[in-house]
Amino acid sequence: MSAQLREWRWPSLLVAAFILQVAIAWNTRFTQPDWAGVPPVPSMASARIMSGGDGETFFRMQGFGMQNLGDEGGRMHPLYTYDMARVARWLRLIDQFSPASDYMPFLAGYLYSYVQKVELLRPLIDYLADVSDRRPATGWRWGVVGSYLAKHRLNDVNLALDLSYRLAALPNQDPLVPVWLRQMPAYALADVGKKEAARDVMAAIIESSKDMQPMETWGMKEFLRRLDEKTEDTGRTPEEK
User: If DSSP codes are grouped into helix, strand and coil, which group holds residue 83?
Assistant: First the structure.
């Protein structure tokens, strides 16, 4: 009898384990994992310990995590549910492990910037502007993206104007920094109705930049011409129009 029991012991355990697994799966079939939101941002010292001395691998792993943040467990979460201030702090932290990379600014400018609630954009715009200030030769484009988001998504022309002044103040001796960055305040000033100030900025650039290509000079003069046309048009009475 004992020999027969020993013979059936393991098959019986396997059957019992299978039945238990089926019971657990059946009772949890409608249970879905909950996302706790954007995790807290560690300190730089803690992040260095987490990296184990390999900053580049840590940068790539954490970057991949930020790229797929909130899309785990077969579920996707809308961006407006994210704490964007915390997201921006994560991007700043990870960015320090590879400061020359465009990975984190790209996520800010072309992924998280599509958040449905535009008021959540401000921390991302601040981060993009800081990247531009930190490495103007290669990061100026992220300042331009931040200015675009401020004007066309956030509809904050004053913030766009402030960012345009920051871009214009970047060192322009580097050949990688385009001259048209100095023109951005003129366009932003025109957007807020300060046409005389816009004219002064653009005219000063034309006077001080003697080595520009002819088409660049023509473009700036064309801007001044159109600015004059708009000024004259707004000064007419309805009868004159």
Answer: coil
